[in-house]
Structures are given as structure tokens and as C-alpha cells.
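We both want to read C-alpha cells more fluently, so let's practise on a single case. Once you have written the record down, we can walk along the chain together.
***
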Amino acid sequence: MSEVYADRRVRLRDRSAAAGSPAALVSRPANVRYLAGAAPAGAVLLVGPEPGTDVLLRPTATGAEPADGRLDELLRQQILPTGGGDPAVLAVDLARRSGADALAVEEHDLTVARHRAMGSVSPGLPLTDLACAVEQLRIVKDEDEIACLRIAAEIADQALGELLESILVGRTERHLALELERRLVDHGADGVAFPTSVATGPHSGRRGHRPTDRRVEEGDFLSVCLGADYRGYRCEIGRTFVIGTTPADWQIELYELVFAAQRAGRESLAPGAGYRDVDRAARQILDAAGHAETAVPLTGHGVGLEIDEDPQLSPSAMGKLDACVPVTVEPGVHLPGRGGVRIDDTLVVRQEADGGPELLTITTKELLAL
């Protein structure tokens, strides 16, 4: 894997140099993880002006390696003594001494105070904005990254499938969420990708609903959204069911509407498709049925080392999809006081010649009565 991380750092160095800064300082943990293999607490990564000058600066080692990933064994490390100062500030001085005449930094990850401290160390070294250069590199995944996402999806499918076989009536949202999270770990997840959402009755269909002590009742819609973290890579799945009885007509109608929107979004995933076009494909079905005000604000987003990363599939998003980009497609409608439906899958954009979008989360999307 050392070659993979080295190649990623070369691509960042080239991009930074083309923008006028021969060196770059990466401080955002997910970006450090992407370029170095792991992100020890408090570490920053200096991508130097020449190959072989990259260095990871980190506070005194605690003896425990990071939980996610494994550090590139060929990457030089500089471990600071206790009380040795801020690694980012020391990295600025190191960049100056390595011959860099400008240093690109992740301004979106820095506090004003930290940026000022970095600038005060080497006033003759301009600090420029690296912006979201690393996040942009992370959008297209290699097959090893996709393999991790595929396993994460399998784990989430297993956990959800087992829950559907248990008795649900009378149990609280909070209890079901905790059980799902335990099952994720039991099946091999390193942890949860995000806090599990279980929403029943009038809560169902809400995006990001936090579980409460409301108990599952007969006739409820039950919306579940969960995800697994496997080797640092995160996926998600969301499904909606009816509890204990034949679905009411309004539930069937609403479910079929959201399912049609979700299918349209999935089918629009292709290299070259605009981010906003994917959103529009799903959203126009909901809008036409009178749910413009009750639909979720975006149709999907990228996944990877973070659960919500670029690209954003929203009405105002700019850009086009590439092959090997994993995204969610998750339209939903929530009717205040009644409940609603969310259907959420993780897929990988593929060329039509390769079979089109690869569906990673395969739990049935049939409207089941549990």
C-alpha cells in the first residue's frame, strides 16, 4: 500500500505546485488518513516540494496505533516531545527549511488563531489556500477502497436483515438503534458510520432523526437508516417498513412514490451525468405529486472515509460524475403528524459497458409488513 499513498501524495504535490505552492500542509484528519494510511491524533502531514521530503508530524506517541488504517511504513515521521508545540506550526518552519517558497494549507480546517500562529513562525513564507484539493482527489475511489465499501455494505445488510426477523412491536426507537449498532460490530464493523436512525409512526421519513423512547405500534411506518465503518470506509442503507398489518392505502401510495423517485435517481447514475441532474431525476417525481415542500433537501452524497463527502447530489450542485464514484441515493418524504418514507442505497457509478451502477446495499426494497 505504500505505493498507493505515495502516488496520492505525488498527485497532491503536482496539483499544489500547479497552483503556485510547491509544498502543502494537510491537517484535516480524513485527508491525512487518505494520504498517509492513518491519522494519529493531532498529526499533520507535510507534503514537501520533492519526493522523499514528505513527513508526518505527530505529538508524542501513546503506544497505540490509530484505530483506522495503518501508517505508510515508508513515510518519515517526526514525533514531537511532550509540550513540543503544535505540529502544524512546526511543519511551517520545516517547509521553509526544506526550500519551499510558498506553502498551501487547508484553511477550511484551521482556526483563525492556529493560522496566525503558523504565519508568525515564518513571515517570509506565504501561506496560500489548498482549499478542498484533497477532498477532490478522494472523490474517485480505487478498487481497494470500493472493496472496503462493499464489505461495509454487506455488514449493514446483515445487521438490518436480522432485525427484520425479530419482534418489533412495543420496543423503543432507542432500543432498536442500539441493537442495530451492536449487530454491526458483531458482523465485523469497526464501528458505526454515523449514529443509527430509527424512526416510527409520525417520526418516520425524517432525515437524521434521533431515536427517542417512542415505542413501535401496530400500523406504524418504521424508517431505519444505518451504516457500517469498515477499515475507515463508510456506507449507508435506509429502508421503510410497515409494522404488523396490511399497509394502509396512503402508505402504499407514498411508498410507491418514493420508490419511483429512488429508482429514477439510481438509473440516472452514469459517468458524465451532472450532480444536479441526478437530484432532478428523483426530485421531479416527488414535485409532480405535490411534495416539493416535504421532500428531503438533497437526493444523495458521496461516501468514503467520511459518510457525507463530495459529490453532493443537490439542486444547486455543480459538476459531473466520474466512474468509480460511490454515492448514496436517498429521496424521502415526511408528512408532519403522519410519518413518511425514506429509501437509501449506496451505489458505485460504473460505465454502462461495465453493467451500469453497482448496487452495494441489497436488502429488499419491497414494502414489507413486519
